[in-house]
């Protein structure tokens, strides 16, 4: 049987309004009264009707999260972070898969589900600034990722150039001098361009050449793409002593080819990935990886939507989430235990 506010009020010997004030965290309730009502809530197992609460505010209690690749572990882990952050504010997350296709990103951003959501968090790949410039939908929009649209929407990213430099600096610090980059994108891709830029800048800072023959472009960023790119470098007669990969999936694909060719990781070629997904922590050789703060990205995205719903702030904001390098066996050798 569902427990109502009236049941809690009768159990605590207070008015329904007092119970409502406690449930809705009204500030002007004494500590003693709050404790008294909370005891009755706990004893009766009362659960607030979140749908009704949101509807009273003219909201649905749903935030949409639109991602390009639900099968990519990074986006799966990011989705979990958004869902956890939203749950802390009594919100439900509706997942959308765009496939990184411009038409799908336009469809999502133009509010085809506006009647059922309170806000949208979008990670675009192909969306152009003009696709958003004439957006008429008033549902709050928060953008994720590295492309700068220079439009009045909150934007959450990480510093890809600095993150790439951290990865390459680690490899150089281990004595590696020929560092390949795998995962430059055929066609436009801000994240790939920024990571290549960081690769170049750190090599230059160390007085090392940024050899274009060691940059391998890919059609995508999966295991097969990394494997094919690594094979092309080796078949061209090049033997780098380190690889910095666009992401962990590309790095894992590259390591598979290195193993098949009889090359040892990290003794012959050290490998660093990007994203720090769970898969990289449990391979035969655990993967050193740049780890973006996915929990912070999820939290900032949800809080930005809620701030917009609350009418604050007036100006769009850009947030840079932290990152760190987690060092494991693919660069340090057997027994390294990065977490």
General description of the model:
It is a single chain. By secondary structure, the chain is of the alpha/beta class. The chain is 42% helix and 17% strand. The longest helix has 16 residues. The protein is elongated. The mean pLDDT is 90.
Keywords:
339 residues; six-stranded mixed beta sheet; alpha/beta
* SS strand fraction: 15-25%
Spell out the helices and strands N to C.
Answer: HHHHEHEHEHEEHEHEHEHEEHEEH
Shape: elongated
Helical run tally: 13
Regions with little confidence, pLDDT below 50 for 5+ residues: none
Largest sheet: 6 strands, parallel
Ends: how far apart?
46 Å
Q: What is the strand tally?
A: 12
The pLDDT mean sits at 90
What structural class do the secondary elements suggest? Answer: alpha/beta
Strand order within the widest sheet? 2-1-3-4-5-11
Compute the gyration radius: what is it?
A: 25 Å
Roughly how much helix do the residues carry, as a percent range?
A: 40-55%
What is the gist of this entry?
42% of the residues lie in helices and 17% in strands. It contains 13 helices and twelve strands. Strands 2-1-3-4-5-11 form a six-stranded parallel β-sheet, sandwiched between helices. A six-stranded mixed β-sheet has the order 7-6-8-9-10-12, sandwiched between helices.
Task: Set down the secondary structure blueprint.
Blueprint lengths: L4 H8 L3 H8 L7 H14 L5 H7 L5 E6 L5 H15 L4 E6 L4 H8 L9 E4 L6 H5 L7 E4 L9 E5 L1 H14 L5 E7 L4 H16 L9 E4 L4 H13 L6 E4 L2 H13 L9 E5 L13 E5 L1 H16 L8 E4 L1 E4 L2 H4 L7
Parallel strand pairs: 1-2, 1-3, 3-4, 4-5, 5-11, 6-7, 6-8, 8-9, 9-10
Antiparallel strand pairs: 10-12
Helix pairs in contact: 1-2, 1-3, 5-12, 8-9, 10-11
């Amino acid at each position: 049987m569902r427990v109502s506010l009236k049941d809690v009020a009768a159990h605590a010997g207070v008015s329904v309004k007092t119970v409502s004030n406690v449930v809705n965290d009204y500030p002007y309730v004494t500590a003693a009264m709050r404790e008294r009502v909370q005891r009755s809530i706990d004893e009766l197992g009362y659960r607030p009707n979140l749908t009704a609460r949101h509807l009273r505010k003219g909201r649905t209690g749903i935030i949409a999260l639109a991602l390009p690749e639900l099968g990519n572990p990074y986006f799966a882990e990011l989705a979990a972070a958004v869902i956890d952050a939203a749950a802390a504010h009594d919100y439900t997350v509706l997942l959308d898969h765009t496939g990184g296709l411009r038409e799908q990103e336009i469809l999502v951003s133009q509010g085809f589900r506006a009647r059922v959501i309170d806000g949208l968090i979008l990670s675009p790949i192909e969306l152009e600034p003009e696709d958003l410039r004439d957006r008429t939908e008033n549902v709050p929009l928060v953008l994720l990722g590295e492309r700068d649209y220079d439009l009045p929407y909150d934007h959450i990213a990480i510093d890809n150039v600095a993150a790439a430099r951290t990865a390459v600096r680690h490899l150089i610090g281990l004595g590696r001098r020929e560092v390949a980059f795998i995962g430059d994108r055929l066609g436009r891709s801000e994240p790939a361009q920024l990571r290549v830029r960081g690769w170049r800048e750190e090599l230059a800072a160390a007085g090392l050449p940024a050899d274009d023959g060691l940059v391998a472009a890919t059609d995508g960023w999966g295991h097969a793409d990394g494997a094919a790119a690594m094979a092309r470098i080796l078949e061209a007669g090049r033997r780098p002593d380190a690889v910095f990969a666009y992401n962990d999936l590309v790095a894992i694909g590259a390591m598979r080819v290195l193993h098949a060719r009889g090359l040892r990781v990290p003794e012959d070629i050290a490998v660093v990935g990007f994203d720090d997904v769970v898969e990289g922590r449990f391979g035969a050789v655990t993967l050193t990886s740049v780890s973006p703060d996915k929990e912070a990205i999820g939290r900032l995205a949800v809080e930005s939507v809620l701030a917009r719903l609350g009418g604050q702030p007036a100006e769009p904001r850009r947030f840079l989430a932290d990152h760190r390098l987690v060092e494991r066996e693919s660069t340090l050798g057997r027994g390294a235990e990065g977490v």
